[in-house]
Amino acid sequence: MNLDELIATEELCERYSVEHTFIRSLNNSGLLEVITIEKREYVHCDKMAEFEKILRLHNDLEINLEGIEAIKHLLVKLSNLKEENMALRNRLGLYE
Amino acid sequence: MEFIDYYKTLELDKSATKADVKKAYRRLARKYHPDLNPDDDSSKKRFQQINEANEVLSDPEKRKKYDEYGKDWQHADHFEQQKQQRKSARGASGGYGGFGGQGQAYSGNFDNDNFSDFFEQMFGGGARSRGTGRSPQFKGQDFNAELQLNLSDVYTSHKQTLTVNGKNIRLTIPAGVENGQTIKIAGHGGPGAQGGPKGDLLITFKIVNNTKFKREKENLYSTVDLDFYTAILGGEITVDTFNGKVKLNIKPETQNATRVKLKGKGFPKYKKEGQFGDLFITYNIKVPTNLSSKEKELYTELQKLRS
């Protein structure tokens, strides 16, 4: 794994003003993948958009982690349904 | 520019307490938050209105000014000036101190700065609160763009230059991209807040079919007219594929609407270089018309042979 693509969790805590326990809770609930290399914890940069989204839902809307988990699950379902809808629309074009 | 009824926006009446405002804001923000309504512009717009209403109604000073001037908001500054002059004349001290940031406006990567002209006019651009007082770095806003291409354009991968917010972006459009598909160009969105990373550019493709082929994912479909005699006796015909012509053997006694598959003659598979779908050809048998008396005679003979 390329270390340049990893962000240390301490840096995340500092930049986003969050407690380390928050990052740990996200990891425990499966919402954020934390990678440990030589006893140091990191988050991959590709996960940052997801992390920021979680942070917004948590801070702005006061949604707890269980709620965020449920939302995430539903958003994935929504996205799959949108894709399916688009594929069906494209298929419908065959009969028009 | 129209007056905006912030109470109506938050579905409150004028007697609402600060707790009521907070409660209404939370309730509506949870309903219209852009993170919960991806790709929904109407929710995003509604959320901005809710945010703006909360910005005003959750701040006692802003709310006071808003309540005091109501629909006369356009003259608010003028009234304010007169009030100050009267106060000065009476020897009262302390000027108008502007607005502090006490609201809890959303501070994410959406159009946070997109306050209405009404708000700007009444409270000025510097009147926005900055969330909860912390200043986290946030990724910039994602830009959405739609790119219309012809089906024939996406048969091969090609480079295209797009101009987004005055900047030229050269991107490779992979062969086989689908109608409605969105691709992400990382780092070409809006600038991040507080030094955060740039947002992404999301391009949704609208593919217009400019060909006689119908497409479903990587497979293509077409209908080919087949003359009656070739259908009965068999033979060879030449058909169009997406990238040229091919010869096809027609079996004797081919029925109308028979479908044949030309393997690998379909559309390129997305991001699978060198792999193609199939082309399905449906035969449409053309029955002869305007028969001569001789032809009628011969067909009648044929009919007798079959009965």
UniProtKB/TrEMBL annotation, chain A:
The protein in question is named: MerR-like DNA binding protein
Q: Which organism is it from?
A: Gillisia mitskevichiae
Q: Which Pfam families match?
A: MerR_2 (PF13591)
TrEMBL record, chain B:
State the GO CC annotations: cytoplasm
Q: Basic and acidic residues: which segments have biased composition?
A: 32-44
Record keywords, A-Z: Chaperone, DNA-binding, Metal-binding, Repeat, Zinc, Zinc-finger
Q: Which residues form a coiled coil?
A: none
Q: Which Pfam families match?
A: DnaJ, DnaJ_C
Q: Which InterPro entries would you find in this protein's record?
A: DnaJ_C (IPR002939), DnaJ_domain (IPR001623), DnaJ_domain_CS (IPR018253), HSP40/DnaJ_pept-bd (IPR008971), J_dom_sf (IPR036869)
GO MF annotations in UniProt: DNA binding; unfolded protein binding; zinc ion binding
What highest taxon heads this organism's lineage? Bacteria
Question: Where is the J domain positioned along the sequence?
Answer: 5-70
Which parts of the sequence are annotated with region: Disordered? 31-64
Q: Which GO BP terms sit in this record?
A: protein refolding
Q: What PANTHER family does the record point to?
A: DNAJ HOMOLOG 1, MITOCHONDRIAL-RELATED
What is the name listed in the Swiss-Prot or TrEMBL entry for this protein?
Curved DNA-binding protein
Q: Which organism is it from?
A: Gillisia mitskevichiae
Lineage of the species this protein comes from: Bacteria, Pseudomonadati, Bacteroidota, Flavobacteriia, Flavobacteriales
